[in-house]
Amino acid sequence: MKVAAISFVFFMLLMTAAGAMAWIRKKKTPSDYLLASRGVHPLLTALSTVGTNNSGFMFIGMIAYTYRIGIESIWMMVGWIFGDLLAWIFVHPRVRQQSDNLDVNTIPALIGTRKNHTDRWLIAAAGLLTFVFLGIYAAGQLKAGSTALHALFEWEMYVGVLIGAAIVVIYSYAGGIRADIWTDVAQSAVMLIAMVSLLVAGYMEIGGIQALRDKLVEIDPSLIRLFPDNLSFGIAPFVIGFFFAGFSVIGQPHLMTRLMAINSVAEIRSARVYYFSWFVPFFIASVGVGLYSRVIIPDIGALEIARGLQEPTELALPLLTMELLPQIFVGFALAGLFAATVSTADSQIIVCSGAITQDMQPKWRESYLASKLATFSITTFALLIALYAPEGVFALVLIAWSVLGAGLGSVLLIRIFSLPLPASVGIAMMMTATLTVVGWRSMGYSDDVFQAMPGWIVAMLLYAAYWLGWGRKSSA
Fold first, then answer.
1. How far apart are CA 27 and CA 11, in angstroms?
2. 92-102 vs 393-416: helix axis angle to the nearest 10?
3. What is the pLDDT of residue 475?
4. What pLDDT, on the 0 to 100 scale, is given for residue 296?
5. Which residue stretches of the chain have pLDDT < 50?
6. How many angstroms separate the CA atoms of 301 and 309, rounded?
7. pLDDT at site 476
8. For the chain, which domains are there?
9. With helix as H, strand as E and coil as C, how does 358-370 read?
10. Angle, helix 393-416 to helix 253-260, in steps of 10 degrees
11. DSSP symbols for 91-133
């Protein structure tokens, strides 16, 4: 294990240095800090977006989810990819074009800005939603990174969270989103190599599909079923819910800012090809690794290292890595996981910083120092959530993803298609979507229908009611 620890430290320092070196290219302007001066190559945009989208969620959360429920997790994969693809085709080009035309640096500003008018209340409300729930999302990333350190060094979880928060501050002071993009590109390669290596190692250890299926049946026959039993609303809403999960990418400010930072609208098409060429194989491999981990480590909860954890199954990938791979590669893979989660947390915190300085307090808009101080404050907020929130990585990420997707995403969709949107209606859509998502989860229905779907439906029904009333008023 000493070799793995040395390897981890070496690769971790290497990837941290890659981000810190972004100071060479940085400019002390809010636009550069938040959008890298809108000059990012499409390949870098794609790899950064896909790496940020799939760090802690996929490495820790998705594998743990598959470990728990088995083959039926494929529906999350199918729906998520399809929803994400539609967003890339119909939404992302408009976001890039309109953000440039309006000269805005954040998603809340894009939501509340028109050519001849700015809805300050709408921008502030969107900024507040971003601040709170993207901060929660960042806390999930810090927890995911600390899981790798807990498995490798058997440190308490809080140690990894503190180390991750410290590195976030280094990244943000080095070069803002540019530092994140540079590190994301390196980490996306590490993530894919590690996941494919684990899939191959699992195959060599257990065998192919039939052997894996037989082993899963021995553990629990429910692990090979395609759909859950006793779904409250049936199979169709269960599957469609995951489409809404994928489409909710449009409400994730830390991902959409990467599309706003690309060189030009025309290059989004090539970025899309790069993105899905990485995303689809990685998602498939993560499901396979989750299934192999269930067979190779059938009862994680009984292990000493899992004692006291809220969600022991989130140790599946780190423990499987240590079980199957050579020690030097263990350090390589877990360093990639830790660095990716920290980089993702940093990108989310930078966006939260923009929400404060650009949206909630526009008088600080041109202050580079204010951006840095806001980043430090938000890091502290995410750190406290990561230390004290009872939820695991998967739960924190999905709550934040769903609220941002339904709350911000629905309003952004209306805005980019140039439909009428009074501030009061936009704010009401955000509020009702948030309450619906949280309420749906609290009632225990999130396993029956992904919680973003009811949030989207309620928000769009509210807008439809306004639209019908506005249409009648206009024709009167």
1. 28
2. 70
3. 42
4. 96
5. 475-476
6. 9
7. 41
8. 2-398 (1.20.1730.10)
9. HHHCHHHCCCHHH
10. 50
11. THHHHHHHHHHHT--SHHHHHHEETTEE-HHHHHHHHHHHHHH
